[in-house]
Amino acid sequence: MAVSAPALGDAFAAIVGGEHLTTAPSQLAAAAVEGVPPRWLARPGSLDEVGRVMSLASVEGLAVAPRGSGSALDLGAPPARLDVILDLSRLTGVLEYVPADMVATVQAGVTLDLLARELCKHGQMLALDPYGGGSRSVGGVLATNASGQRRFRYGTGRDLLLGARFVQADGTVTWGGSKVVKSVTGYDIPKLLTGSLGTLGVIVEATLRLHPVQPASGSWLFSFTSREAAGSLAAAVLASSLEPERLAWLNAGALERVGSERAEAALAVSVATVAEAVTSQGALLGSMASRLGARVSALDEGFWTRVGGGLASSTVVKLASEIRRLPFWAGEVERVISRHGLTVSLVGEAGNGILRAAVEGSVSPDTWAREIVAPLREALAAEGGSLVVERAPLDLKRAADVWGPVPETALAVMRRLKTEFDPRGVLNPGRFVGGL
Amino acid sequence: MAYECDMHTFYKGAPDVVVLPETTAQVALLVRLCRREHVALVPRGSGTGLIGGAMAPHGGVMVSLTRMNRILELDFANRCATVQPGLINLWLSQATRDAGYYFAPDPSSQMVSSIGGNASTNAGGPHCLKYGITVNHVLGLEVVTGAGEILSVGGKAHDHPGYDLTGALVGGEGTLGLLTAITVRLLHVPAGVRTLLASFSAIDDASEAVSAIVAAGIIPAALEMIDETFVRAINEGVGAGYPKGAGAVLLIELDGPAAEIEAQAGRIVQICRDHAALEIRVAQDEAERALLWKGRKEAAGVVGRMSPAWILQDAVVPRSRLPEIMREVQAIGARHRLVIANVFHAGDGNLHPMILYNDLEPGELERAILANDELLRACLTMGGSVTGEHGVGLDKASSMPLQFGDADLNFMARFRRVFDPDGIMNPGKLLPSHPACGEGFRPSVPRLPAGAWV
Ligand SMILES: Cc1cc2nc3c(=O)[nH]c(=O)nc-3n(C[C@H](O)[C@H](O)[C@H](O)COP(=O)(O)OP(=O)(O)OC[C@H]3O[C@@H](n4cnc5c(N)ncnc54)[C@H](O)[C@@H]3O)c2cc1C
Ligand SMILES: Cc1cc2nc3c(=O)[nH]c(=O)nc-3n(C[C@H](O)[C@H](O)[C@H](O)COP(=O)(O)OP(=O)(O)OC[C@H]3O[C@@H](n4cnc5c(N)ncnc54)[C@H](O)[C@@H]3O)c2cc1C
Fold this sequence. Notes:
A: alpha+beta; B: 17 strands
């Protein structure tokens, strides 16, 4: 039998403590997700409390949105329903960290910055550098499978999450994976959770694989007067035995935003290794680039933060294509978008085939859906790629599905997974692919 | 009969029929037939598994994928290849070497094991310290699920919207479906390789050196440990010329830009000296490098010289506990009056103690089983894992509750059911009690009685 709202509020307060439950309408309005305000905002202080909140929500058939730092709550389709925001920001414990094992177990609310401060004392790092900085929570970064340029060398959350303690929709506390760097015991549940946008479970603790900070690093910008030449350098680097750490593609708009000199296209490359090898790899890169007519300038580390800032825009689209097609798609995006009087700054991961476009200017929802998203999406899909709208004003989101279609058979399996683990649609309902 | 077991010859169970399909469509037809008739289905690659995975305890149909062994596409510009499951691991690196590429996962069985088997067991190998295990190299899969669907997930382009089914299917050990095509990452051959061999008088010193190397921020491409018993057997068996009388040998390989491996090799030599290394050899050319590796690579082959029978363990400990667990291994051996020989992936903390016993001597097998069990439990007590690379199979299904709680196993059982609703795929493997009846996992007897093993 359904419990009345005030009684439910009391029940949540009994779990997390009255001071950690928000019910004031003004505060709830401020916590709205895509304009939908929650009825409660609960800040549990422990794993057990997360479990009890979920269990109550599930019994009552409430919709719950987990929240880390709240920076990307708009990712995905607008919520179908929303009752509870489960705020994990009090869970900031670094539970286990043995530097010699290069593994750390942390609570989901720990921010990347906080973790980085802990790890750098021992010359180590979590090699996840999503755009937008270090104030993001580990749980949010994993749930959205967010990554940045470093993935070229170190992989994504998928490769770095060894184990996870999570709470299922019905409140069951569950563990998947292991706490060691190498384990194949049972199904790889952490991979299932990574990027699942909190639709299968709430990640509460994560065991992460760490890497040593290299003793030296160097970064260079190679600017070109043509996209083709920049593409040739990217291809040459990838076909060589050079081992860059990051390989970023920038178009004219992105160069302007990060304050670099004008060019049609540029490639920013970093290497991180021992000092001797930084020098020798830099020299090799330089000679490859100058043969292709590049202008070379040295970059400081701050450049890599500015590249992320270059994507701060109310509309951001992410394209994934084959690696070798990235220069082509960069041209296509510029062409399609500029035709509508919009400007675009493009930042690509030249080693992974990922392109992000920050779009500026006003466009009607109809034009957006029919003349920008649909044609790009269809052409990409024909090559096995995808286009995701990572951020956009609500009217644009309503006009074109943010995720795009998922092949029927795969979607059927995803539906079965969602039905199996969240039959009542408690966790982030309606926000993920295919309306999951 | 050739199909009654994999390389874990303890477990025998012959299928009623063996089918060797040539196309994905044939595989799908087979699965649908088996589903309709409620017949068990066991996928099999090269049968080199060490876990009783590719054998049929419940009879049924075995699907051997050896005829599906072609390279479907090599795409160097996208640094990937698509292959059929039966392709032998090493063939892929051989086919790509001239273009400057290779396939990083390198189980010691790479000359014979299949890429489908590697992806299904999520195989590791000496070089996964730096490069990760198979799952880190699988970009996409075509799979026929236990429900009979032909499912394509992942691919050359990264980050497909939706759940990471590719990642969750790798390591499925044939319990979720049959892999019929696999798109894998190719890596560029590194600019340089440097291989070192350091010998120590005691395994303790060698273990400490492993920790110190990693603590210095160096991730070698490989960091392998060979103990005294194996050094002796390898020297006698394959003439690898390892230092005589060494209590332990570390085989260390660095790869990468020349200046990087040069500098790191210098550091490593210093660290080994600091940990009382008796001798350090650095391979000067490819021939010397091959000789240093020869002993390690052929270690499995020399076991027969040491003992008529053995049990191989594959548990993992956190790297920092290596010295401690090695002392424990010795203590367990002494307690059960058995020789335990070790050759393993030290950099990952992935142990491979080999418990030697004489099957003609009454009681020895029972003691070996006890010792094996104690070893596994010791690793788990230190925060380790039941298996590092070989997988669970039939062998370790009953050990799963040692590492996971009921809720965790239940989650896995339900995950399995999403792909295999009728429980026809490789029943009895990976999970302690097979949820074929449509219920979730139910805790079973924690261990098979010793006698039932043989
Ligand atoms: C300016 C800007 C630029 C960005 N650029 C990029 C980019 O280039 N690449 C990229 O990959 N990402 C990018 N992002 C996204 C962002 O980096 C990540 O999505 C972010 O790390 C989310 O962290 P958070 O703690 O703020 O999560 P939140 O915003 O709090 O939550 C994000 C989602 O994850 C769910 N969630 C949060 N915590 C958990 C948990 N513990 N368990 C289960 N589900 C949970 C939420 O329900 C929500 O759906 C950008 C974001 C911003 C603001
Ligand atoms: C001498 C020796 C050294 C070894 N060294 C290593 C090592 O260093 N690292 C390591 O990880 N392993 C090692 N192994 C174990 C073994 O080689 C690996 O587990 C290998 O990945 C198995 O491949 P396979 O083709 O022989 O598979 P099989 O033994 O035939 O099958 C293994 C499992 O995968 C399933 N399977 C096989 N093919 C498919 C498919 N196409 N679709 C779905 N399921 C499938 C089977 O049902 C079974 O459960 C070694 C084995 C030997 C004998």
